[in-house]
Write a structure and sequence with these properties.
By secondary structure, the chain is mainly beta. It has a domain at 3-60 and 129-134. Helices cover 12% and strands 40% of the residues. The chain contains 2 helices and 13 strands; from the N terminus they run H-E-E-E-E-E-H-E-E-E-E-E-E-E-E. It has helices spanning 3-13, 76-82, and strands spanning 17-22, 25-30, 34-37, 56-60, 65-70, 88-91, 96-101, 109-113, 116-122, 127-129, 134-135, 140-141, 143-146. Strands 8-9-5-7-6-13 form a 6-stranded antiparallel β-sheet, with no helix packed on it.
Length: 151
């Protein structure tokens, strides 16, 4: 079993397009090989079935789900004063990501303060890991800060 296997069905029922991942990159399990980078994930019509051993879980954005990824701890409060309240959010090593349901397209966009990336708007063609995924390179776990774990 894996984090993906434990959470994929429920998250799919909640309307998320789930992806198995490793180190924040979509992967799939190949018997006898293990996890390999997943190609074509931006256009897949259905999520991969379980089992996906050793896989974390991510969601594909777009299709009505947008993420505002605040990459600077100092910018979290000012940005959240502008955004509407979100019932689903996560905290990573730095900053927070807040998720919203929308019924219109939103362009992916990066916002900077000088040379420092402060905010990413993530939609079609983007993905992000979600709790309870662990990021082995960062040696921390994503934590749910709003909503429920794995939502």
């Amino acid at each position: 079993m894996s984090i993906y296997d434990d959470n994929a069905s429920e998250m799919t029922l909640q309307g998320y397009f789930v992806l198995p991942s490793r180190n924040k990159i979509p992967h799939r399990f190949v018997r006898g090989v293990g996890l390999v980078r997943l190609s074509g994930w931006t256009t897949m019509s259905t999520p991969l079935p379980t089992p996906q051993p050793d896989a974390d879980i991510a969601i594909r954005l777009g299709g009505g789900v947008v993420a505002f990824d605040i990459d600077d701890d100092g910018a979290v409060v000012p940005i959240l004063e502008i955004l509407p309240a979100s019932s689903v959010a996560k905290r990573g090593q730095r900053g927070e990501t807040h998720f919203y349901r929308v019924d219109f397209n939103i362009p992916n966009e990066n916002f900077y303060d000088g040379d420092k990336l402060v905010l990413q708007v993530l939609y079609t063609g983007r993905q992000t890991s979600v709790p309870p995924s662990t990021q082995s390179r960062r040696a921390i776990a994503d934590r749910c800060v709003a909503g429920r774990e794995g939502a």
